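Thread: Newbie trying to understand structure tokens

Hi all, I'm a second-year student working on a class project, and my supervisor (Dr. K.) asked me to get a predicted structure for one chain before our next meeting. I've only ever worked with sequences, so writing a 3D structure as a token string is new to me. If someone could post the tokens and maybe explain what I'm looking at, I'd be very grateful. Here's the chain:
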Amino acid sequence: MTESPEWLFAADNRRIAFRRVAGEGPTEVWLGGFHSDMTGTKAQVLADQAASTGGAYLRFDYFGHGESDGAFADGTISRWRDDALAVVDQLTDGPLVLVGSSMGGWIACLVALARPERVKAMVLVAPAPDFTEKLMAPDLSDEARAAIARDGFWTRPSEYDDGGYPITRQLLEDGAQWSILPGPVAIDVPVRVLQGGADEDVPWTHALALANALTSQDVVFTLIKDGDHRLSRPQDLERLTAAVAEARGLVEVDDDPVARRLGGGGPGAG
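---
Reply by user tm_fold:
Sure, no problem. This is what the structure looks like when written as tokens:
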């Protein structure tokens, strides 16, 4: 990644780094995962797709992630939700298609609940709602729990980061207040979920629980049986770009009064 990011100043004057592609139609907003950043494979593939198709696209780094200000250890779900809301409120207009990966799937749901008039469709990749309380906390060893009680944090080993990353008491306690499962989750827009069956970080049953909890009746859950958590293989990226293109199309049809008069699908729809 050679291009420099742009900057949005948050309420505490911390900088949120972002990149965008100018275009038409609903704005796609990429919401990355825990300890991830906006230069990842999926985020870049969607930027390339937007550039080639003329769509509007926005990606950013949460507080303590990537090129944004702040220490990762000081981050919480509250802070990262606030970052996402600041980005959509100050950098976008009109309808939104939220694309959330892992923790970003949780953040996407929280944004959709807070801005229902803006969010018109969602694509979720291995969504991890409530992961701090339902996936992370139960998996902590006695040693990890003791370290958190004693020091306020524990460094979790990670195959994605040689140094691991801190899991703090603040993160776990804050995350519990944003729990959305078992639902119902009052999101009533088209949602497409892509989930790996071999995902060792987010069990497919957890993602399916979210799909079932959504109040929307237009939810499609795709299980990629041999897919891992990242879902970044060429065939996975093809599924992602197709799902985002479908979501954009649904929003554009919904916002087209001519298409609505013709039954929602335009001429020739059946």
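A couple of things are worth pointing out once you decode it. Strands lie at 6-9, 15-21, 24-31, 55-60, 96-101, 119-125, 153-158, 161-168, 191-196, 219-224. The two ends are 43 Å apart (CA to CA). Feel free to ask follow-ups in this thread.
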